[in-house]
# Entry
Amino acid sequence: MTSAALPLQPTSGNDRFNAEAASWETNPFVHEASKEALKAIMTRFPALTNPPAPDKGLEVLEIGCGTGLLSCLIAPYAKRVVAVDAAPGMIEELEKKLQTAQTPQNILPVAVLLENPEDKHLPPVDESNPDGPRLKFDLIISHLTLHHVSNLRAVLTTMLGCLKHSGSVALTDFEDNGPEAKRFHEKAKMAGVQRPGINAQAIDTLMNEVGFVNVRVERAWSMDKVVEKYDGEFGDAPKGPRQPGQGEIKSFPFLVCTGQKKYCQ
Ligand SMILES: C[S@@+](CC[C@H](N)C(=O)[O-])C[C@H]1O[C@@H](n2cnc3c(N)ncnc32)[C@H](O)[C@@H]1O
# Structure
């Protein structure tokens, strides 16, 4: 066997998200979750509503943007949102939305599994030097995505490398608060799921180890979700209709994980 580098992410997740892209926004849960994420981010980053100067809005990078639900919500408060997703099908849906007048136009959709802060898919610092160094960001967001990432250390390291000095991350996902957390996903939706949510202590430790400073991991909101009473109750169809009496409602806490890149002179 050759020693070709292993991909950081399995492709099964991409297959699943490409297949689900066109119907992603028919699920009210993902709309509600993005609105809650926006609230959690806005309260922690007042510079979004009060930039240092009118022309000094924040450069925002979203990793795992999907169809751009959160990108579209945060874009009116940002100078620009670079919206990255590893599943090209998700990015195609965002590109379609960008053709409509109601979608903020300061969003740049990018289909890439981002593993390198100098990846040429990211915009350059200087538009007149397209092959030069890549743009660094004031704020990196990532919502409902970390539980799909197999190598969290690698992704956090990439995020740190994509930040300006003193730039911040705000990572939102459901919490792994015990054995019940695995019920967040029904059996037919397990492709690409790497962990049952985010463990607060583990992400805090990892963010510090990777080099973030001022790390804070907080419970920000909770959401009710209809879950299977037992594994496979909803069947194998990707979105099977619920019969009367099927499933039960369970509340899931969500974390917001913030941290900064150290300022270096
Ligand atoms: C559960 S979806 C959430 C999408 C969107 N944030 C939302 O809330 O609607 C997770 C997304 O993360 C993307 N993803 C997973 N790992 C990624 C990575 N390392 N880089 C970029 N995208 C990734 C998947 O392709 C998928 O679209």
Remarks:
- The chain is about 25% helix and 25% strand.
- Residues 1-11 have pLDDT under 50 and may be disordered.
